[in-house]
Amino acid sequence: QAEPRVVLSARGLGKDFAGFTAVNNVDLDVEHARIHALIGPNGAGKTTVFNLLTKFLQPTRGQITLLGTDITQTKPDKVARMGLVRSFQISAVFPHLTVRENVKIALQRPSGLSTQFWLPLSALDRLNPRADELIDRLGLGHWRDHRAADLSYGRKRVLEIATTLALDPEVLLLDEPMAGMGQEDVAMVAAIIRDVAVERAVLMVEHNLSVVADICHHVTVLQRGEIIAQGDYAAVSADPRVRTAYMGT
Ligand code: ADP
């Protein structure tokens, strides 16, 4: 394992909503080739942290650095172009289009092929090889020509991840990627996230703690907007504050 490389970091991050402190004093380091989980009870501030990191919300306090650049004042579209992409934020899965068409549409956005969104699909044929490579990598090869609407729920989420990866992000933020899935789909998506993280950083909010234990290298636990524990799963799950606050034991 090479030296850990921090690609996204927050220092003293905080957000107040009309006098209510939703997030406070959050220090976070997300590393290349690692899967980092953000967990905590409902209302802990996980979504707000995601919105702050992607700059959908402007922080009240603190500083955010992406790939060595201070992005505290940067607009969200620029942050996305710099390599920080959130799963649902840019990926749009069009139900009536095929898996391959969806991926091609996602691919032409950063490729500079067009500044127009609605390029005719026929103009995107040159993207077939790249689309197919991504589709195969994510195990969707068999469904290449199926309409997105006909995919299982789990595979739709995988297609969503594929359209996000088309932007070639350095840091991928996933908001509850396993939500609502059966065990088989959870295992499929877990394997994909592992594969994705070989060459990128992943930060994910996830409620399924066995998945977190299984695939996440680092866990940050939030409670009432503040970090109460950080470390690997074994360490945070043994932490007495986490046990009372989160696990309820
Ligand atoms: P989580 O994602 O961990 O469930 P959130 O980040 O959604 O938590 O919310 C953290 C706290 O901030 C909650 O108490 C929530 O009610 C509050 N909050 C979130 N967004 C807003 C907002 N736009 N205005 C006021 N309060 C908010």
Automatic annotation (TrEMBL):
<keyword id="KW-0067">ATP-binding</keyword>
<protein>
    <submittedName>
        <fullName>ABC transporter ATP-binding protein</fullName>
    </submittedName>
</protein>
<dbReference type="InterPro" id="IPR051120">
    <property type="entry name" value="ABC_AA/LPS_Transport"/>
</dbReference>
<feature type="domain" description="ABC transporter">
    <location>
        <begin position="8"/>
        <end position="249"/>
    </location>
</feature>
<dbReference type="InterPro" id="IPR003593">
    <property type="entry name" value="AAA+_ATPase"/>
</dbReference>
<keyword id="KW-0813">Transport</keyword>
<dbReference type="Pfam" id="PF00005">
    <property type="entry name" value="ABC_tran"/>
</dbReference>
<dbReference type="InterPro" id="IPR003439">
    <property type="entry name" value="ABC_transporter-like_ATP-bd"/>
</dbReference>
<dbReference type="Pfam" id="PF12399">
    <property type="entry name" value="BCA_ABC_TP_C"/>
</dbReference>
<dbReference type="InterPro" id="IPR027417">
    <property type="entry name" value="P-loop_NTPase"/>
</dbReference>
<keyword id="KW-0547">Nucleotide-binding</keyword>
<dbReference type="GO" id="GO:0005524">
    <property type="term" value="F:ATP binding"/>
</dbReference>
<dbReference type="InterPro" id="IPR032823">
    <property type="entry name" value="BCA_ABC_TP_C"/>
</dbReference>
